Amino acid sequence: MELPVRLSKESRVPIYHQITAQIQAMIASGQLTAGSPLPSIRMLSKDLEISAITTRRAYQDLEMEGFIRTIQGKGTFVADVEESLIHDVKMKSVQQAMKNSIEAALQQNYSFKEIEGIFMDLMEELKAEKGEEKP
Alpha-carbon distance 1 to 25, whole Å? Predict the structure, then answer.
């Protein structure tokens, strides 16, 4: 099984964190369901062209956090993750995306008030596209 993990070697975020976050997001979104097999550490390391030590660290973190489980002699599988944990991952993902957008706007010298206006305009646009009425 090949995981659609994309690494950025230029990022300041450590590689193992990038792997962990992306696998968490795949589990939270339902792309990976409970019981789904994951590639071995060796296989994922080879696919991503990184050290097995880095991949092992990501898998250890995911297992400690309750996202995956390893069964000796059988492999590594997606765990049955608690809803509260899935909610936390989704919330962090959305918050990070919004933070990145705000930081990009600040780099373009927009004020917080202007950014808020852009956000509200986009919200209204998306509401209209989704068929939701204005309050």
Answer: 17
